[in-house]
Design goal:
CATH architecture: Up-down Bundle
Order of helices and strands: HHHHH
Distance between the termini: 67 Å
Structural class: mainly alpha
Strand content: under 5%
CATH topology: de novo design (two linked rop proteins)
């Protein structure tokens, strides 16, 4: 009699146990997939931010050289403005998914790049403030280089990439 009861109970509870294990496994798989998706989002945002900030930095430096040499053209202005907008857009997008320490590093970089961009525009328009020259702005732009490196280091660290 006991054997029969155990057999019947085992038959009845086996599907429930199987269902419970399946639900748990699916929840774990969903969690793993969510972590992978978030990692990929951060990696894509970091890649885009790094590319856009470096491109903006490079074109800003080129613009200052060309302004200094009095060979700055409308095409140069358009390329710099496009790079600035791309940088701004990538930064805005990243603000929604990256950790605060990455945003802090990018804000430090943004302070330098935005300031130098404003100086370049004033010089180009012929209304520089006292002491603003392309040569001085180029020297000040060097402050962005360690900030670029620091931002990249923090991003790589967040992704688990350490040297």
């Amino acid at each position: 009699m006991i054997t029969a009861v155990v057999g019947v109970l085992g038959t009845l509870f086996a599907p429930l146990l199987h269902q419970r294990l399946t639900v748990r496994q699916r929840a774990e798989e969903a969690l793993i997939e969510d972590r992978r998706r978030r990692f990929e989002e951060r990696r894509a945002a970091y890649t885009a931010m790094n590319r856009a900030s470096r491109q903006f930095h490079t074109l800003l430096k080129d613009a200052l050289h060309r302004i200094r040499d009095d060979v700055y053209t409308d095409d140069d202005r358009a390329r710099l403005e496009e790079a600035r907008r791309d940088y701004r857009d990538q930064y805005a997008e990243a603000q929604m998914i990256v950790p605060e320490r990455v945003l802090a590093a990018s804000r430090d970089l943004n302070t330098v790049l935005a300031g130098i961009d404003a100086v370049a525009k004033r010089i180009d328009r012929g209304i520089p403030r006292e002491g603003e020259t392309a040569a001085v702005a180029l020297l000040e732009l060097k402050d962005a280089e360690p900030r670029l490196s620091e931002m990249r280091r923090i991003m790589r660290e967040d992704l688990g990439l350490t040297d």
